[in-house]
Amino acid sequence: MPRADVVVIGAGLAGLSCAAELAERGIRVYLAAKGMATTHWMHGGLDVAAPDGARSFRDGIRLLAAKRGHPYRTLATAAAPAVSTHLARMASAGLEHVGSLDDPMRHVPTAIGSRRPAAMVPSAQAAALEPWAGDGLLLIGFKRYRDAWAPYAARNLEHARWRGGPPKIRAIEVELPGLNGLHNIAPQILARMFEDAAWRARALSAIADALPAGAWRIGMPAVLGLDAHAEVHADAERTLGHRIFEMASLPPSVPGLRLFEALRRRILTLGGRIQIGFDVVRVERSGHRITAIHTEAASRTLRIAGDAFVLATGGIGGAGIRASHDGTLTERVFDLPIVAPPRERWFSDDPLRPHPLETAGIEVDANLAPPELENVRVIGSALPGMHYLDERCGDGVALASAHLAAHSIARARTVTA
Amino acid sequence: MTFHDAAAREFPPFSTDLCIKCNVCTTVCPVARVTDDFPGPKYVGPQAQRFRGPGVGRDAPDDTVDLCSGCGICTRACPAGVLIAETNNRARAAIVEDRGSSLRNRLISDTDLIARLGVPLAPLANIGLRNGLARRLGEKLLGIHRRGPLTTFARRTFTSWWKRRGGATSLPVTADPERTVVYFHGCAVNAFEPDLGRDAVEVLERNGFTVIVPRQECCGLPFISNGLYDQARTKARRNLSSLAAFARAGYRIVGTSTSCTHALKAEYRDMLDLSDADATAVADATWDICELLLDLHDRGELDTGFAPMDEPLPYHPPCQLKSHGIGTPAMDLFSLVPGLRAVDSDHDCCGAAGTYGLKVERWQIAQDVGAPLFAAVRASGAVRAACDSETCRWQIEQSSGVPTVHPITILAESYRRAGTAVEEPWRRIV
After folding, report:
1. CATH superfamily, domain at A3-94+257-416
2. Are B305 and B207 within 8 A, CB to CB?
3. Residue B1 pLDDT greater than 50, yes or no
4. pLDDT, tens only, A328-343
């Protein structure tokens, strides 16, 4: 039977970061999740807080913290240390980032030719974040690669007004060596191909041959390597003689895979344990404390005991909260009370506006503890009161709440000791 | 439990409705990683499932599902709870039901038959297994790759040793369910690795258990993996009728193969639709041996008098073990042995996947899947490695060149070095 100081439930950015931070503080962690989470779909940049009108992430946090019931009301001060801890953790895994909470919000092109506000991205996306200063935008697609269509993205970008954008936008499609005859070119497959130095040399030379003359910044599908990503990206920029930024497209996201792997390894290296693939089916309580969870198993259940528990299972859009047809919302692990709009507001006329039910979440106090349970903390998108897609605050809330929860658990342990 | 959870329990393919097309399964699939021929778990699973079913044409676009090795990593990775591997296994069985199976697949699945033929002829049969020409012939005639991971036959089966030792095959009236276990040795221990069975008995007895070895056959997993469900059900029913009485009486069934025990725990239910009272009782009573010993340790009852074993030990948790949902109990037990420096391989799959890596048309895929693991095992500098499932052991041993044993063999050796009060001189069986 596994025993840990802290059991973290959920393997998204919040759960992984919290487990990593606890392990970094010398606390024995056990991370249990029923499956992978949204890391594999992330664009790779950090959405700290970018609601409409935010001039920077710090400004965005301020705007959101002013909204009634928003998680940033309690998390605003945790955001800065949480983000810098995260960036340091990423850098130690070879995933450098650029940007800060005070950098001006800019717009970076996406793989479908829209633009998203951004101020903090991995180094491999940095070229999209800097002022265009006369450089043209060249989007490169790969023939036979179905998950990113450069000409389509370029057309969409050309048609929208883009103040401060590049003076010209072009798209080319390049035939990479060895793809002819392949049927299943998934992004992670291409990413591994790019790690093979010999193939990469031929691929980059094919791209170089197709480059139009001029000063370009190149947007490319996010497939520039996995483990050896930094080396692949540097080699590509050197060989092509232009700045290159990656654009994540359809899931799975290679930048997300890198992030997941960096955090997973961090936890394991520090002695933490991870079990992904088994749902929590039962919990043990004693008074106002949880003493153990049971995860499903091929037969019987696995009892995982701990002193404290972190719930990072996601909200209504994830797996943490389920809605039933009769209008009941249930938190699936501890059956915690939920804050949600009334049933009559569950339907929205405008599919493109934030959905009211997205704000559903678990009621917590300033320490992120739910009512009546003193050794549980709730983090990430399980928290109520946010439209994390529209407000672009999901990553920031995940990191800040993970940081605060780890801090509060560590403090409680010191007091007890 | 929601409607979908319940429905999926009844019939795994129902769970494919939950697929959100995120492709996480494709990123973790070890087969899709190495061959372009396999479009990945999502395509052959939730996508293709829409074209399958009664009244749907036989030309359903799902032949590539046969490239699935059945490792189950996709099911565990799925954020939405789709039973992908289970669905794909059933899809392969449907193809086999429609079009039949090759002689080769029927033969390599029938491990009991192979044992009956091979063990009496062990010296001769083993020459054949080691002979390059014979293996070439086997490749040409049967489609068993000449370098496929095969081990050699034991000269005596585990059960014949057990009989000669006077071991129990049924319950004495006074047996205490807490201190008596049923050993499910499986076909591999019986015909190929009887010494592992002996090690298991030794470790169990050292911890105060009386061991019973009732009549049993191959668990049927090789048939399940090859889509031969009728034959698998025959094996399963025979095992259930032999084991159910023990399970109902409260005795635990312990296995040394995480593949066999996973079949007893889950695959009889998930693939073969065996969920009657007997099957449920057996599933609930089945334990992996390391799981059982760790449970004993949690109660403070494990004999922890392990002698030091001063060696590095690369340990590979097999895919089937990971599907148990019990963590890696062998690693926890290794930590009790002074000096033993066990390291979890942290690699997904060795590639063997039971009979998959034997097949001439799959051998290269299996080698490519396992290549990072083999390299890591070689680089460890260890004189041996450990792994809980037999075909994985054979694959790792053959492809890395590093002898690979079951974790129990390490523990038995450590106990033996510490001095064991056993009532008989332990002899190697083969």
Report:
1. FAD/NAD(P)-binding domain (3.50.50.60)
2. no
3. no
4. 999 999 999 999 998 8
Top CATH class of A112-249 equals: alpha beta
Which one of B99, B122, B150 terminates a domain? Answer: B99
Based on the fold, state whether residues B275 and B324 are members of the same structural domain.
no
pLDDT at B422 over 60: no
Of B24, B286, B295, the CB nearest to A36: B24
More confident residue, B7 or B353: B353
Chain B residues closer than 8 Å to A292 by CB: none
Q: Would B126 be classed as within a structural domain?
A: no
Cβ distance of A37 and B295 shorter than 8 Å: no
Q: Do B242 and B213 share a structural domain?
A: yes
- H or E element: which one contains B329? helix B329-334
List the single residue in B22, B76, B80 with the smallest CB-CB distance to A251. B22
Distance from CA of A144 to the nearest CA of B (A): 13
Residues of chain A with pLDDT under 50: none
Query: What's the CATH number where B280 sits?
Result: 1.20.1050
Mean pLDDT of all residues belonging to chain B = 91
Q: Which of B99, B117, B148 corresponds to the end of one domain?
A: B99
Q: To probe the interface with A, which of B260, B264, B326, B388 has the most A CB atoms within 10 Å?
A: B326
Q: In this complex, is the C-beta atom of A155 within 8 Å of any C-beta atom belonging to chain B?
A: no
CATH code (residue B47): 1.10.1060.10
Where residue B148 falls among pLDDT bands split at 50, 70, 90?
confident
* Cα–Cα distance measured from residue B404 to residue B188, given in angstroms and rounded to the nearest whole number: 15
Task: Write the CATH number for B336.
Answer: 3.40.50
The pLDDT confidence band at residue B150, using thresholds 50, 70 and 90, is: confident
Return the pLDDT at B421: 46
Option in B80, B81, B325 nearest A297 (CB):
B325
Is the distance from CB of A248 to CB of A43 less than 8 angstroms?
yes
* CB–CB contact A279 B78 (8 Å): no
Question: Can you tell me whether residue A240 is helix, strand or coil?
Answer: helix
* Spatial contact of A52 and A392, defined as CB atoms under 8 Å apart: no
Do residues B255 and B289 touch, judged by C-beta distance below 8 A? yes
Please give the structure tokens belonging to residue B9.
Answer: 């329990």
Phi, psi of A345 (to 5 degrees): -105, 20
Peptide bond connecting B372 to the previous residue in cis, omega within 30 degrees of 0: no
Dihedral over Cα of A402, A337, A4, A30: its sign: negative
pTM tops 0.80: yes
* Chain A hits for B80, Cβ within 8 Å: 35, 319
Domain that holds residue B63: 3-99
